[in-house]
């Protein structure tokens, strides 16, 4: 009477174990029992049980007809582990998965059986039930009956196409390098068109002619600075190519063009930490974890005038070699413009004060002006329609004053002592490189000793876990609050580990880049400069990016 008692007590649909219906058809059957009720809600009670006897011959034929590669197969077990179908004759309805595991001493098969009867679904490595060949087993429950279906695929048959593809890929490796050279040449022609004087040399370098002679530039402006930067980049490329050739010669005869480009991308980023050895006014650390072998994120930092330090984070649209090349051009152009603006500002300051006593006042380069000039260079003849988001800031490490501007980039996080992390306000200015003539607003804040700024790209906040949930700005702020006054290196490493743990192995579609700067202040007469400015406002007004290219470093906030 199990067909009656069990569904009556459980008040749900119940399938019986398979049985041989002798005299009622002389075939293998299974009974489906469904309770029906009198009353509604709390007064409802079981009025009876409706049953249906189903022949299993069609199910056996259906599962046996499943063709899995050449020698793969499928099998079905009940909720108690009894085989309904099995490739070996005489096993179905006579043995269970647990009896087979006991007979062979296979503990892995026992664990698989336990998970299957519990309704689990998984892809695991296993061996054939009758040949012992290694392969992969995928199993899942049948919702209506609670039975479980398993499909076994032999490893050698499953990976046969992959192995053949690997051989073909190895043969096409040489052609891949030629394709890379042509691709880089095409990218160089479209992106470097605004740089008229350097176009021919840049195209030759991009096509692989690393010994190409760069033209001499007589003028001492940003074009000269860019030519000098290209010369340094050319030497850096040759050095990294030599290093990569020596490193890969002992391992592989042919290397993927994307892997080489990735090494070049990461190799041209600054790696000196702390950035100004001997200076204790501030500390800085940055990290970049590419989502693919070649990405578009970058960071940079460099001195840009007396007691001024520029730091920035950017994110280029797209992925692969085009993004890496555009990243190199963007980073080089921004640095050249920043150094040119810094030099021009100092010369103007000296000219205005050459008749007065004492040194001229320091002039802090205007990040908005830097981004405006860099945007014009990137936007001219930009037929590839690429763009870059940038957050650029200049720190006066004597006063702790920070001037910053954003070209469509994520707002940084401000960490102040004994205060919750907060996001810096930005003006929603557009990305760089999309169109010329854009003005970028410059804002100002003053850091006290112990305060920090956390710059990042959208690869951090848009990191996604297998459930399609985003890491988000709220989680980022909570993690930074938890880290407190940890060192800049420890903060970067802890954030990267937290993002990795959140992703839980899910493949990420964007690079993860972070830069953390903590201001320590300077000590003068037993009192730090940051303490002397503690009563100042934390944020000031803003100037537009077409300003004169500098702002005063006397602690006042420009409007």
Structure in words:
- The protein is an alpha+beta fold and 559 residues long.
- It folds into three domains: 2-55, Beta-Lactamase; 58-158, PAS domain (Beta-Lactamase, 2-Layer Sandwich); 256-549, Phosphatase 2c, domain 1.
- It is 36% helix and 24% strand.
- The protein is built from 16 helices and 24 strands.
- A six-stranded antiparallel sheet has the order 11-12-14-15-18-23, with helices on one face.
- The longest helix is centred in the middle third of the chain and has 33 residues, at 320-352.
- Residues 532-559 have low confidence and may be disordered.
SSE topology sketch:
Layout: H1 2-10, E1 14-15, E2 19-21, E3 27-38, E4 45-55, H2 57-64, E5 73-77, E6 83-85, H3 97-104, H4 107-117, E7 122-127, E8 134-141, E9 148-154, H5 155-158, H6 160-171, H7 173-191, H8 199-206, H9 222-249, H10 257-267, E10 282-289, E11 297-303, E12 308-316, H11 320-352, E13 363-365, H12 367-379, E14 388-396, E15 401-407, E16 413-415, E17 422-423, E18 442-446, E19 452-456, H13 458-461, H14 472-483, H15 488-503, E20 512-519, E21 523-524, E22 527-528, H16 529-532, E23 539-543, E24 550-552
Antiparallel strand pairs: 1-3, 2-3, 3-4, 5-6, 5-9, 7-8, 8-9, 10-20, 11-12, 12-14, 13-24, 14-15, 15-18, 16-17, 16-19, 18-23, 19-20, 21-22
Helix pairs in contact: 3-4, 7-8, 7-11, 9-10, 9-11, 10-11, 11-12, 14-15
């Amino acid at each position: 009477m199990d067909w009656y008692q069990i569904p009556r007590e459980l008040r749900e649909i119940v399938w019986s174990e398979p049985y041989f219906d002798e005299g009622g058809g002389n075939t293998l059957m299974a009974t489906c029992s469904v309770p029906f009720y009198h009353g509604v809600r709390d007064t409802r009670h079981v009025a009876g049980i409706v049953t249906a006897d189903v022949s299993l011959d069609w199910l056996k034929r259906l599962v046996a007809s499943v063709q899995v590669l050449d020698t793969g197969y499928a099998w079905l077990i009940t909720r108690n582990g009894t085989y309904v179908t099995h490739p070996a004759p005489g096993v179905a309805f006579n043995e269970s998965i647990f009896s087979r595991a006991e007979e062979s001493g296979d503990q892995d098969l026992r664990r698989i059986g336990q998970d299957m009867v519990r309704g689990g679904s998984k892809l695991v490595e296993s061996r054939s039930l009758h040949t012992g060949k290694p392969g992969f087993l995928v199993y899942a429950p049948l919702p209506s009956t609670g039975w479980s279906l398993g499909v076994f695929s032999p490893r050698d048959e499953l990976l046969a196409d992959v192995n053949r593809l690997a051989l073909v890929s190895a043969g096409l490796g040489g052609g891949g390098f030629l394709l890379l050279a042509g691709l880089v040449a095409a990218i160089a022609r479209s992106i470097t068109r605004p740089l008229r004087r350097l176009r021919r040399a840049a195209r030759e370098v991009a096509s692989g002619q690393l010994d190409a002679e760069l033209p001499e530039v007589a003028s001492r402006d940003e074009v000269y600075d860019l030519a000098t930067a290209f010369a340094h980049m050319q030497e850096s490329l040759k050095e990294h190519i030599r290093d990569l050739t020596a490193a890969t010669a002992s391992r592989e005869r042919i290397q993927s063009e994307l892997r080489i480009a990735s090494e070049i991308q990461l190799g041209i980023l600054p790696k000196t930490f702390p950035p100004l050895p001997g200076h204790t006014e501030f500390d800085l650390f940055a990290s970049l974890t590419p989502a693919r072998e070649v990405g578009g994120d970058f960071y940079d930092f460099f001195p840009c005038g007396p007691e001024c330090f520029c730091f920035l984070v950017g994110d280029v649209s797209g992925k692969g070699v085009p993004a890496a090349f555009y990243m190199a051009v963007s980073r080089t152009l921004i640095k050249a413009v920043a150094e040119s603006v810094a030099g021009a500002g100092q010369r103007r300051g000296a000219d205005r004060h050459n008749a007065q006593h004492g040194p001229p006042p320091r002039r802090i380069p205007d990040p908005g002006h830097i981004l405006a000039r860099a945007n014009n260079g990137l936007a001219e003849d930009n037929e590839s329609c690429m763009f870059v988001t940038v957050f650029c800031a200049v720190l006066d490490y004597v006063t702790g004053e920070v001037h910053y501007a954003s070209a469509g980039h994520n707002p940084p996080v401000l960490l102040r002592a004994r205060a919750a992390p907060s996001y810096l306000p930005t003006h929603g200015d557009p990305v760089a490189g999309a169109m010329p003539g854009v003005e970028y607003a410059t804002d100002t804040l003053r850091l006290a000793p112990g305060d920090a700024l956390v710059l990042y790209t959208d690869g951090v906040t848009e990191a996604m876990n297998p459930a399609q949930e985003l890491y988000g700005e709220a989680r980022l702020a909570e993690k930074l609050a938890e880290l407190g006054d940890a060192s800049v290196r420890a903060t970067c490493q802890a954030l990267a580990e937290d993002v990795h743990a959140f992703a839980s192995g899910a493949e990420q579609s964007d690079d993860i880049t972070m830069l953390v700067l903590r201001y320590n202040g300077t000590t003068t007469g037993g009192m730090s400069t940051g303490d002397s400015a503690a009563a100042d406002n934390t944020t000031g007004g803003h100037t537009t990016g077409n300003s004169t290219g500098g702002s005063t470093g006397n602690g006042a906030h420009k409007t």
